[in-house]
């Protein structure tokens, strides 16, 4: 099933969008494009800043993607902690000791030291609201000497290094913290210095030649925020942008396929089944719903094949999950719906969700359920979903939160006292598996415990994972080594340039 013609971009819209982007990027090359060794990189990003690029908000991920702000730790492909502004660390009970990298300067020329790290971490730990990564975490930082910082938590936490990799815990110069807001302009440590912010329209970054990791290959970055997906696709087609974020599925088919890359995201489109009351309190009907769902048809029809059919809750963005996963032994066999009436809720903020709901409605009705849909904006439906007012709820869910570890997601969604338990699910055996996954030391043992917890959840049909989403990134023909990062922490790196 192909998407209807309304999804295709009319020629007039291409022209209008191209004109819009031409205006947005006008003058980009004139910023400081006097370098002889490369072109400035023009980037079209989807979401404009929401909090003035404060690292204490989701804007932190923009600073990370532009390689301007850095953290003590970064994450490897498997989510393991690797050195960044800290070179090494060790744990002693509730306290972790970090050695700070020597020879690092902020973009204003001041030196990175332990006091600077403590200042940034303390600002984040005492912020209201706290960065997501510190929800429920009581963290204090102390400078032991000029190059050593200790981080202590209220309870022993094996994930402290991974937490410190969150872009929301970036380390900035003292100048960033003057006044009531955090201002990252000229205050980072990365290979590119943020020099100018044009409100919610644009940002300018120039190469920082004193970067501790060497000289960036590109002389700078010119960012334009373009919320309209049609306009972003047009920017790639017309050559007005070099790197384009989040191209809509509906536009990807009409672009030169050599210019787009589909990046697996740690995001799963999942049908949460209400285990607490109603039809799906019956395990056999949960099993019947699972067996009735044709996820491949949803991937082909709604996502035009640009998604991956789910084998579990964790997808290809975590390659180790498939390697460790085995067959799931289900707790119940499928029963007969016999016209059982159910209401499925979802939200309209993501364009594909209502289409997914409509397809599911057809599939479940064919299996014998009587299905009603309730589709609203997310802010108007979340409270009802959390209160268990639907028999089922469709959600595009991030399965790896800011720590790069999926245990927190599994616990919040499927523990008896989970804070995001849409399934109203409570099972002592599953609770035990989730606690083990949360408490196990980081590494192979923790990954195995996570997959065991996933299997325990799936055995009870608490939720039905349907597909794993991809984000579509556009890179113009001359772009070299743009990052394609499932966690959306990297985009333009020290090695990225335009021929």
From TrEMBL:
SUPFAM superfamilies tied to this protein: Periplasmic binding protein-like II
Molecular functions (GO terms): peptide transmembrane transporter activity
Gene Ontology cellular component list: ATP-binding cassette (ABC) transporter complex; periplasmic space
Residues annotated as domain Solute-binding protein family: 82-419
Signal peptide: 1-28
Pfam families associated with the record: SBP_bac_5
Keyword tags: Signal
GO biological process: peptide transport
InterPro entries recorded: Peptide/Ni-bd, SBP_5, SBP_5_dom
Keyword Signal in record: yes
Name assigned to this protein: ABC transporter substrate-binding protein
